[in-house]
Amino acid sequence: MHISTTSPVDLLKQLIAIPSVNPMGQSVSGDIYYETAVTRWLVGLFEERKIPYRVQEVSPGRANVVAVCHAPGATKTVMLDAHQDTVPVEGMTIPPFEPTEKEGRIYGRGACDVKGGMAAMLSAFLRLTESEATLPNHVLLSCSCDEEATLGGIQRLADEWSNANDSQSEPESLLHRSPDLAIIAEPTELDVINAHKGVVRWKINVAGRACHSSAPREGESAIYRMGHILRLLEEYAEQLESERKAHPRLGSATISVGIIKGGSSVNIVPEHCEIEIDRRLIPGEEGLAAQAELHQFLSSHVDFEIIFSEPWVNVPPLSDTENGLLSKVLLQTIEPVAGERTSIAVPFGTHASPVAAAGVPAVVFGPGSIDQAHTKDEWIEVKQLEQAAEIYYQFCLAELK
């Protein structure tokens, strides 16, 4: 392996060519799935350049890769984080793993979400490691796993910070302990996201009593019971939006049902039905409390048992109360490179909220538009990619308070 470039365009093309599809909980197999190949590529890059790094296994075959640019005498550590995985490729109208550059764009799965952001961060990070100047800040580059499904990679990294061993010598200790602030790569069109909703997801199950469909009254339809639950959920969703206090920038909390499963055969009254819940949280809400509140509401309206699973995603919202200074400095860094930008709030979640929940001020910033994320012909503008790389680099050179 030999990668001499620090060009974000060249780095992005190499990353697109390495499949890292998140199976999104599906039972699948094949070389295109999971982050293993990207992890291997990152390890090879850091070893070749003698950059201190470590691999943190999160689950079998899935790992975070964390590298550090050590700045002797520095007191602040900046973390740049980008996830390795992409969404699936079914339905794409372009070759997903054959990066194509044309008319000022680069096409391929992950070009926008978020291998473009990773390439820009890698470019800045490699330039910093090659700099002969005295750097004002340590810089961590976190390439995390499993963002698209569970955010398990960044949560594992953040959980570790509270148990870090500060007795280790630098730069080894820097690879384990919490940074002072963080920038998370997502497509923001070079604006700064400083607030977003959180999300908690779980399953609701109800049971019935099976019987032959020729005599349905001898059984109890779990699907009919779930129909009652669904009507109550519609009522609850309306209450969330009409009766609860909304966040001034993010609006109302929301709830939706994305999947329903039930029954085994058309001639059997179903004994089981299951739905999957997506509950979006605004600042001031907590996932388990939101789940418990809904359970109480539903249980008070039905006379049968309702079973809630443990959440498989529970990501807090990102509040704008602790990252104001970080947003200001980043916006000041952006302007000379890409013109005036602004701070925005968005309804979707990112790695910033688990990082912020661990006590590290965090914002979201990167090249590309969310409108291109997950699309059938995913692409990113070369100009924004190059601008983002320069902004990450300049931010890491700023004197931070």
Automatic annotation (TrEMBL):
Key word ATP-binding present: no
EC number(s) stated in the UniProt entry for this protein: 3.5.1.18
Domain of life according to the entry: Bacteria
GO aspect biological process, one term: lysine biosynthetic process via diaminopimelate
Pfam families to which the protein is assigned, alphabetical: M20_dimer, Peptidase_M20
CDD domains xref list: M20_ArgE (cd03894)
Co-factor requirement: Zn(2+); Co(2+)
Catalytic activities: N-succinyl-(2S,6S)-2,6-diaminopimelate + H2O = (2S,6S)-2,6-diaminopimelate + succinate
Peptidase M20 dimerisation domain mapped to chain residues: 194-301
Keywords, sorted A to Z: Cobalt, Hydrolase, Metal-binding, Zinc
Pathway of action: Amino-acid biosynthesis; L-lysine biosynthesis via DAP pathway; LL-2,6-diaminopimelate from (S)-tetrahydrodipicolinate (succinylase route): step 3/3
GO molecular function: metal ion binding; succinyl-diaminopimelate desuccinylase activity
NCBIfam families reported in the protein's UniProt record: DapE-ArgE (TIGR01910)
Family the UniProt entry places it in: Belongs to the peptidase M20A family.
This protein's name: Probable succinyl-diaminopimelate desuccinylase
